[in-house]
Structures are given as C-alpha cells and as structure tokens.
Design a protein that fits this description.
By secondary structure, this protein is an alpha+beta fold. The protein contains 6 helices and 20 strands.
Length: 346
C-alpha cells in the first residue's frame, strides 16, 4: 500500500509540474532596422514568465524551415550577437546546439533576449534588408521560446523614417503593432517595409483582396491593368472553391528587375511572388499572373486542406510527408486551369 501511495504522489507531482510548464508566457517581439545598408535586422524578444514557473532556463530556438518552404534552411547561421538580460542584469546564455540558445533565468521572471539577423536575399526563404526596403517571411528572423509556440505573441516594428509596413495582417496604413494567436501565425506572414510600394484593394463577394506591388523597374503604366487581370483569377478560383473562410487576403508582388530573383510562396492569408523582370515586360506581366493563380489555389489546397504532417509543425527537423503529390501536384494542374478559366492563354 505504501508503494502505491508513493507512486500516486509521484504521478500527481509529475502531472502538476507538466501543467505548470504549459502555462502561457507573455511574449513580445520588437523588430528594428536602424542601419539598412548593414543588412542587419535587430530583434528583441521580451518574455514574462508566470510566478509559479519553476524552470531554471529558457530555450530560444531558430526554426530549420518555415511555412510554405518545407526544405531545411540554416537560418541560425545568420544570427549574430545573441545576448539576454533581465532589466540591466546580463544573464548567462549558451548555444547548446545548431539552432538553440539557452538562457539561465537566475530567478528572474522578465527576460529579454536580443540578437541580429543578416539578410540580403529577396526570396521566399530568406530576408532582405538594404537601403531601399526590408522584406521577410518570419521564420528566418524570429526565434521562438521552446515549449511555448502555442502562446499568443505581440510584434512591434520600428521602420526607418518614411518607410511603411504592410503584410497579410495589416488593418490600417500606419500600423506598427500586431498581435498573433501563436508563433506559427506570426511567421506565416510575409512583410514588406519600405517607402515606395503601392496598394490597390479589390472587393469581391464581400471579401477584401489587397494587391501590394513593390517595383524596382518601369511598370509601363500597366499596374491598373495588372490589378484588373488579377481580379479575373481570384473570381475564377472562387467560382471553383466557393467563398473563402478569410475576410481579407494579400497579394505581395515584387518586380525585382535583377534577372535572378524569382519565387512564389503560399501563406495562410497572403502570398508573396517575386519576379526577376519588370512589370512593363509582357512575359513578366503574365508570368506573375500565372504564379498568382498557383499560389492563390494554395489558399485552399495546402493551407486549409493539407497533409497531416504540415501542421502543427516541429521546427527542429525536416517536414516529411508523402502527400506532396497532392499538395503541389494538384495545385500545379489547377493553377494552370484557373489561369485559363480566367481567360488567359499560355
């Protein structure tokens, strides 16, 4: 009997400790870019730990990949000058593996981790910061607190003077603060920060579609026609799927004019599409529309109808699924089909 009582007490203590560790933390991110030519983003993560949390340390982890781009990328290699403090007191920190920095709490409940991230690649995988703009998806910039990815997070962005911020969660033109239900929504959200992007809005069957264009070359006066043609694609896909379950969706286009930058990546309420040419070029114009047909189809197939392995995600190892032939194969076929249904030819 004594053994059983001790066993039950041990199990109860284990359960109590587990429940304690699952209590949500207060997590707030700050992103600054005071020296754009340096290509260095400056990140601060402020963590508030519940009073009864007994853990001795916090682990800050950089993901190995991110939503929409399921191949492994060494984001941690771009991290510089990681440190942690509580108020004005420096806390001991150690990099314990290739993607994890461990901070000793030393009895403190309010902890701030800071670091810099190098980024100079305009793509759906990595970030770019230069004298003309900043762009990121999220996973290549923001670490998460291990064990607390489900916790709500806040984000404050401090852009350079006269630069504006836009992403798929933007609700007003001067917005610098966001609140996300969890880390995975935070990083499933490509963001453009700069002085010269344009915004057009489409209202289709009660939903708002934001069309953001960041162009580094001549658009030949084709932007209004491009937005109109994009509306045809949206209507064709809604005609197949029916009304989407989001209230707004953002198309973020880059016309890089560098003959090398090219990408397209799906996200929960947005897509980011990068073309190497200029909008004034006919091939680039229709190439961007074709890519949009593919990526917008992903708003249903993959972001909502998805292989079970693609969420919730384990950012410490590659995402392995045997369902990519449906996720990408069907989308490739129907992206072309939707492009044709919208009235465009090859």
């Amino acid at each position: 009997m004594g053994f059983m009582i001790r066993l039950l007490l041990a199990l109860a203590l284990t359960l109590f400790t587990s429940l304690q560790s699952q209590q949500p933390y207060g997590i707030a991110y700050r992103l600054a870019m005071p020296h754009p030519p340096s290509h260095l983003f400056e990140v601060a993560i402020e963590v508030t730990v519940p009073a009864n949390d007994a853990s001795a340390f916090l682990d800050f982890q950089m993901p190995k990949w991110q939503p929409g781009r399921y191949s492994v990328a060494d984001f941690a290699a771009n991290v510089q000058q990681f440190s942690a403090r509580s108020q004005h007191r420096t806390l001991a920190s150690t990099k314990i593996d290739e993607q994890t920095w461990r901070v000793q709490k030393q009895g403190n409940r309010n902890i701030t981790a800071t670091y810099k991230v190098f980024g100079n690649d305009l793509s759906g995988t990595y970030a770019q910061l230069d004298s003309s703009h900043a762009n990121y998806t999220g996973g290549e910039v923001f670490m998460y607190v291990a064990g607390h990815k489900p916790d709500a997070v806040e984000l404050h962005i401090e852009p350079p003077p006269n630069w504006r911020v836009v992403n798929g969660r933007t609700e007003r033109s001067d917005q610098h603060d966001w609140r996300y239900p969890n880390y995975e929504i935070l990083i499933d959200n490509p963001t453009e920060i700069g002085p010269d992007w344009t915004l057009d809005d489409l209202k289709i069957e009660g939903k708002i579609y934001h069309v953001v264009i960041h162009s580094r070359g001549d658009d030949g006066g084709r932007r209004p026609a491009f937005v109109h043609d994009l509306e045809k694609i949206v209507r064709a896909e809604i005609g197949m799927w029916g009304p989407p379950d989001f209230e707004s969706y953002t198309f973020l286009f880059h016309f890089a004019a560098d003959d090398r930058s090219s990408d397209g990546m799906e996200h929960l309420t947005s897509t980011q599409i990068i073309e190497p040419g200029i909008l004034a070029d006919r091939g680039t114009y229709y190439g961007a529309l074709s890519t949009a047909a593919h990526e917008f189809f992903h708003a249903w197939n993959v972001k909502r109808l998805r292989p079970i392995e693609l969420g919730p995600w384990d950012w410490t190892k590659p995402a392995a699924t045997r369902g990519l032939w449906i996720a990408e194969g069907f989308t490739q076929y129907y992206g072309i089909e939707m492009y044709h249904r919208a009235g465009f030819e090859d």
